[in-house]
Write a structure and sequence with these properties.
- The protein contains six helices and no strands.
- It is mainly alpha-helical.
- It has two domains: 74 residues; 76 residues.
- Helix 1 packs antiparallel against helix 2.
- The protein is rod-shaped and about 95 Å long.
- The N and C termini lie far apart (85 Å).
């Protein structure tokens, strides 16, 4: 069972390497699986020879290695999935099932969005989205401000003088100014 010694040495070398990469760990796992299979084969032949021969007779097992070829080093496999070309034109974000160029969400930056949701809507993203959907359907800024008061301002006790509230209202104002 010289292959067992070779496998143990390979595992020991990888372990003593210092910092292991994921490939090193995968190699050790593969070596361990082969080692385990060889040990099971060796054990099954030992049990078989113990049942045939009396215990006082010691017979050295003659075991053929399961694999006479050296263990190949694993190689990285490449994907056969074709690579899609990168589009040259970036599409605008799509909300819902269709793109609406007049959607108020297009006027809200990512940082403002998360600040609005956390500070003005109590981390209720669904309520935030519902309110913006309603604002998109309205015709005037005054209607939008009234809906904001009904759906969020009164519910979350907004401080109308705070910077974040003023930024939110300014976003609504800019939205209606750009529509006309």
């Amino acid at each position: 069972m010289e292959r067992i010694g070779v496998l143990l040495n390979k595992i020991k070398e990888l372990n003593n390497k210092g910092t292991q990469s994921i490939i090193d760990i995968d190699l050790m796992t593969d070596y361990t699986k082969v080692l385990y299979a060889d040990l099971l084969e060796w054990r099954s032949k030992m049990v078989f020879s113990d049942t045939i021969n009396p215990p006082q007779t010691i017979i050295e097992p003659k075991v053929q290695p399961a694999m006479t070829q050296p263990i190949p080093e694993p190689t990285l496999q490449t994907s056969s999935i074709p690579v899609q070309p990168v589009p040259t034109k970036v599409s605008p974000p799509i909300y819902g099932t269709h793109y609406n160029p007049t959607d108020i969400r297009l006027k809200i930056g990512i940082n403002d969005k998360y600040q609005f949701i956390s500070e003005l809507f109590g981390n209720d993203k669904d309520l935030y989205d519902q309110l913006l959907d309603r604002v998109n359907k309205l015709q005037t800024e005054e209607e939008a401000v009234r809906i904001v008061h009904q759906m969020a301002s009164d519910q979350f006790w907004w401080n109308e003088e705070s910077d974040i509230v003023q930024t939110f209202y300014q976003t609504i104002k800019n939205h209606f100014l750009s529509r006309h």
